[in-house]
Amino acid sequence: MSTAVTTQSTSFTEVARARRSVRTYDPTYKISKEEMTELLNEAVTAPSSANHQPWRFLVIDSQPLKEKLLPIAFNQQQVVEASAVIAVLGDLESHRMLETIFGRAVEAGYMPQETADSFVANYTKMYTSVPPEVMKKIVYVDGGLVSMQIMLAAKARGLDTNPMGGYDAAKFVEAFGISERYVPVMLIAIGKATKEGHPSIRLNADEVTSWNEFKF
Q: Which ranges carry the Nitroreductase domain (predicted)?
């Protein structure tokens, strides 16, 4: 059985250009809990609205549970062949962690207690007063940011990923006991590729960028 041995000496440009969506994985290759935790600790340095960090992860690396997920993900084979599937979820009540986040900022010397107290009070009021659909948009954006960071962190370690929006979200939350407090953002298959992802054509920056005045 293979185990992960990875390095992080690759430049960002190489990582960004080498990352592709991979759908064929070595089913014998396992990622340890320790390495997955390291990878996720790198990913959670992603930015988020008011630094409220609404992402929550469910790492599914049990083979029976991957088999359970397979029909929910429309029988995409990477679900059962990859080392794991990371479900990225958005916490609609992430304001509950603000006191912890800003309390640690005070302990680290990043801000005085008064500032932290003000941030907690103001952001709690804001996040508890916005309509549910607005809050969902916030956690979808932040969930997208951390998802991209997961995929880049994985590639830097010599691992491959496949982001999946093609799954039955309602069946997923029911099958895995996810409460209404959390919304699924995406599933990310992660493991060691046995076949490279297909190369794809991207529009270049000049084709998608305007300067100072939007001209599309």
A: 17-192
pLDDT computed for residue 177 by the predictor: 98
Residue 50: count other Cβ atoms within 10 Å of its Cβ.
18
Architecture in CATH of 12-91+146-194: 3-Layer(aba) Sandwich (3.40)
Q: Which residues of 149-176 are buried (b: 16+ CB within 10 A; e: fewer)?
A: bbbbbbbbbebbbbbbeebeeeebbeeb
Looking at this protein, which amino acid is placed at residue 76? Q
The pLDDT tens digits for 38-48 are: 999 999 999 99
Whether residue 8 is predicted with pLDDT greater than 80 in this model: the reply is no
Using a pLDDT cut of 90, give the percent of the chain over it: 89
Are 57 and 184 a contacting pair, CB within 8 Å?
A: no
Which ranges constitute the DSSP H helices of the chain?
Answer: 12-18, 33-43, 63-72, 78-81, 98-107, 113-129, 132-156, 169-175, 205-208
Rg, the chain, Cα only: 19
